[in-house]
Write a structure and sequence with these properties.
Elements: H1 2-27, E1 30-31, E2 34-35, H2 41-46, E3 54-61, E4 64-68, H3 71-79, H4 81-84, H5 93-99, E5 106-113, E6 116-120, E7 122-123, E8 126-127, H6 128-134, H7 136-151
Antiparallel strand pairs: 1-2, 3-4, 5-6, 7-8
């Protein structure tokens, strides 16, 4: 009887995890399930710059794949993934706060604020990090609220 109960628990739990991962992927800025266009999320914090990760050094967190530039960064990530994941699913923080839109980013345009990684859209004439810096606290509050509505 215990074995049957265990098997039933497993059978009902697996689809829940799969649904959670699938839903999460629909909200994240990924290409082929890879986040941050293959940049190393830990490097932003530990090296203070955007560093391209390597396909050979990867891990997956709740369906989202991350590349790392060195094995030690992968180890840091595995200890606390939520610390290193970009805010708002890797979408432009300014756009999330300003217009509640999912806008692609330039992974080399970023800011670490309050221990969190924020990414921004940046083209020749439009660097949204500059706009974010003019009203960071207000935009952050709006972006947090908008993101919470999206992921519900």
């Amino acid at each position: 009887m215990k074995n049957l109960l265990f098997i039933l628990t497993i059978l009902f739990t697996i689809p829940c995890f799969a649904q959670k991962e699938s839903k999460r992927l629909t909200h994240f800025n990924v290409e082929k399930n890879v986040a941050i266009q293959g940049y190393d999320p830990v490097a932003y914090f530990k090296q203070g710059k955007a560093v391209k990760g390597k396909k050979e050094i990867t891990t997956s967190h709740e369906g989202v794949v991350y590349y790392f530039s060195m094995p030690v960064n992968k180890e840091y990530f595995l200890k606390n993934p939520s610390k290193f994941e970009p805010q708002y699913g890797g979408w432009c923080a300014f756009a999330m706060g300003d217009s509640n839109e999912k806008v692609s980013v330039n992974p080399e345009t970023f800011k670490i604020s309050n221990g969190k990684l924020y990414l921004f859209y940046n083209t020749f004439f439009n660097n949204t990090l500059k706009s974010w810096n003019k009203n960071e606290s207000g935009l952050m509050m709006k972006a947090d609220a908008n993101w919470n509505k999206i992921v519900k």
